[in-house]
Amino acid sequence: MKQAILDATNGGLDVILAYYPDAEHCIGTNKHFRMRADEKDASACIMEKKGIWYVTDFGSDARAKNCFDVVMAEEDYTFSQAIYYIADRFRVDIG
Fold first, then answer.
1. Cα 43–chain centre separation
2. Which residues in the chain come in under a pLDDT of 50?
3. How far apart, in whole angstroms, are the C-alpha atoms of residue 92 and residue 28?
4. 54 pairs with which residues across the strands?
5. Which residues share a beta bridge with 44?
6. pTM, 2 dp
7. Spatial separation of the C-alpha atoms in residues 7 and 88, rounded to whole Å
8. What are phi and psi of 68, to 5 degrees?
9. Can you state the angle between helices 67-75 and 79-89, rounded to 10 degrees?
């Protein structure tokens, strides 16, 4: 299931950009973006590692989060709920 979602969402990039559209301008650069509108300074970055995309917010816990972690944090979902939510939203057949 997890791999099917990653394959269908460009390594999770599509999911991350759905939550943080400002990240798109930082792909392939060392630039930072604002994850929240109320942030004074841009403190997050986006990077790809072994085909999976991660977002790191240095203004928070500074932990790299993949698309599943992002959905879990933003929607207050469990991992299982996040899998089904992403599959439904991005029309991924997870069998």
1. 15
2. none
3. 26
4. 47
5. 33, 57
6. 0.92
7. 15
8. -70, -45
9. 100
Separation CA 18–CA 5 (nearest Å):
14
Map residue 26 onto helix, strand or coil.
helix
Could you tell me the two tokens for 50? 């072994």
φ, ψ of residue 54 in degrees (nearest 5): -135, 150
What's the pLDDT score for residue 46? 97
Tokens at residue 57, please?
């917010």
**CA pair distance 22, 32, nearest whole angstrom:** 9
H-helix or E-strand containing 44? strand 44-49
Tokens coding 63: 């932990």
Residues counted in the chain: 95
Q: Give yes or no for a contact between 18 and 88, defined as CB atoms under 8 angstroms apart.
A: no
**Which residue type does 28 have?**
G
8-state DSSP, 38: T
Residue 74 near residue 19, CB atoms below 8 Å: yes
